[in-house]
Amino acid sequence: MHPFRLLVVYLCVASALGAIPAIEQTVRQIGNGFPRTWGVRNGAPVVADYEMDPEIVNDPRYRERLPEGLRALPSLLVTMKNEDLFGEERGIYAHPMESGDDWERACKAELVGTNNVTVFEVDCGIQIQGGWNRRPEESPKHAFRIVFKKRYGPGKLKAAIFGSDAATEFDTFILRAGCNNTWLHWKGEERKRGDFLRDQWARDTQRAMGHLSPRGIFVHLYLNGLYWGLYNLVERPDDSFAETYLGGAKQNYDARNADKILSGDATAWDELFEVANAGVTNIAQYERIAALLDLENFADYMLLNLYGANADWDRASNWYACRPRRAGGKWLFLVWDAERTLEYPKDNRLLVDDDRSPTRLFHRLRQSEDFRKLFAARAEKHLGGVLSAAKAAERYKTLSKEIELAVIGEAARWGDYRRDVHQYKEGPYELYTPETWRREVDRLLTEYFPTRTEIFRAQLKEARLIN
Questions:
Q1: Residue 71's pLDDT is what?
Q2: Domain residue limits at 34
Q3: Residue 449: partners with Cβ closer than 8 Å, 6 or more residues away
Q4: How many CB atoms lie within 10 A of CB 356?
Q5: What pLDDT is attached to residue 220?
Q6: pLDDT range class, residue 8, cuts 50, 70, 90
């Protein structure tokens, strides 16, 4: 296992650097001295919730393993002013819908290994990250973005967080909290599917297919010295990411988070869709697309999302793309936020088509015999390899083993939220436990992965995308 594959992340506001909360304190936390509300939403106070649920903490099945899971992992401690986090006027947690530099706050981050040796200590910034799970009613467990800017300290973090074969300098990273297929979702069906693994599985799989993809590690988050749950610390695939892995200078990249321009402009993007929407029915049109889009990367990207039957994927959300801003620079697509994948083996998303999105490019390219040949060749390669039943399941199983103990902490922290704190939209409102998680993991390992590859192969044959 990678030495930093599993981290415990602490955001400690009132404690000194290196002061990791005692296990006894953590498992009994109820939030004494902290605000009773986290701002206002839709005219009503957002009720704060800090407690580690005694039903999990005291359960004979978990009480011995919970301290083990919290104690055995490295820790990232981040300190900041209390009013900058929870304050009514300028606290980012009290104003999660706000974004941008005006809602970024100074902090200090220190990564401490399990041997109590500091890996890095740096002044940096923090802000709320993401889209839908900013809404407190949708999820009280928000995501964060950590940024390294000269206004706070060094302009970059230098640390081998993701291993020696990955980037060791960062402008930013993201602490993904999860929203879909988690125990906090508004829909009962999705809460039962909570596994916290799908997005990391998809990014690992894209890399296993031979392509650039953001690295990620699982983390526990402590916010203000309080346990905040299981998170996924991930590289952000922006212009800085492209600079690191593809070379050149970051200002020479177009980068997009779906319909949002992160760097560069829309010129090359607009050209790509102008060409695609005109049709790809002859060799000249195909060659025009090939000059703008890395077709092998795109074919594999589509295979991965279609294999997983991505159900939350359109022009406005859940993918990144980048290209070098030069003659011949081609767009690359990168997997992001694949939480609505790997749901049911018979799911089929081959007909999804939304303009200005990857699915539109795919359906226009399907018109081309040359692309169909390329796609079929890539499908045969990966359905017999990376996406085979055995290898897809083994990748998932490996990830599940990495977070098995950590899930006990997540269950204690958030497993009772929809039952006891905020019953939102749709029941049943239940206590979610490590056994809930285990049932979903076992379902995927015994029902999804063993059958999905051949079901997907049949779907591709029916669509005349493979022979």
A1: 80
A2: 6-235
A3: 389, 392, 393, 396
A4: 18
A5: 84
A6: very low
